[in-house]
Amino acid sequence: MNSDKKIGIALSGGGVxxxxxxxxxxxxxxxxxxxxRISGSSAGAIAGALYASGLSxxxxxxxxxxxxxxxxxxxxxxxxxxxKMDTVQELYVKYFPEDSFEALKIPLIIAATDLRRAKVVxxxxxxxxxxxxxxxxxxxxxxxxLIDKHYYIDGGVLNNLxxxxxxxxxxxxxxxxxxxxPDEHNIKNIKNLIERTVIMSMNYxxxxxxxxxxxxxxxxxxxxxxxxxxxxxxEIFNAGYETALHFIEENESILDFATKPKKKKQ
Length: 266
Hints:
Blueprint: E1 7-11, H1 19-30, E2 37-41, H2 43-52, H3 57-66, E3 74-75, E4 81-84, H4 89-95, E5 108-114, E6 119-123, H5 129-135, E7 140-142, E8 145-147, E9 150-154, E10 172-176, H6 190-207, E11 215-217, H7 233-250
Helix pairs in contact: 1-3, 1-7
């Protein structure tokens, strides 16, 4: 379905759970829906950038599975992080050789958090790789990323579903959250407690923006996967794919993008 409508998609952060975004994109594409504006935080920014470069969801999944991401992480000699993320730049150069937003095939907005000014910053032009690193720079785990004399950390800290850059610009906005948290009646240990608390905070951040979406897709139960649980990539991808197919079946109006204008919000 070729559409002259501006179809925006906002992709949440969530570590390896962000692979589910690729499954969602695959399902949308198979149904003829091709987002032509993308925004993302953290893992959503990474998935969005690779998709915006022209790679298919299946190609991106293959890259993630075959790449030993952790070999690019080196210890940080700093009190601000355990790992130094700058070295991941070596990996991104391979897939973004022009290092430019303008070189992407689809317009992309990346959300990052300015640490000193305590505000969200949206990057959409100029150099691509540094903002991409900044958006996925988990605080406490990675050293902050320096861009133009400002230090940046994970975009999900303040905006884990960056709808704002799409709102009022796109005819239709699709939000995708990869951190659904099921009910839990037995917190087994401090690790479970911390992980659940962090995801609760992330989801509050997301759900406060849910009403700005025309459609909101959320694969169930993904919070059971760890941030770096790369061995579960296929399961996570399929969860996004199957959820999106079912969502489209239940919300057939999403297929009307090409022929029907977006209803004005009241």
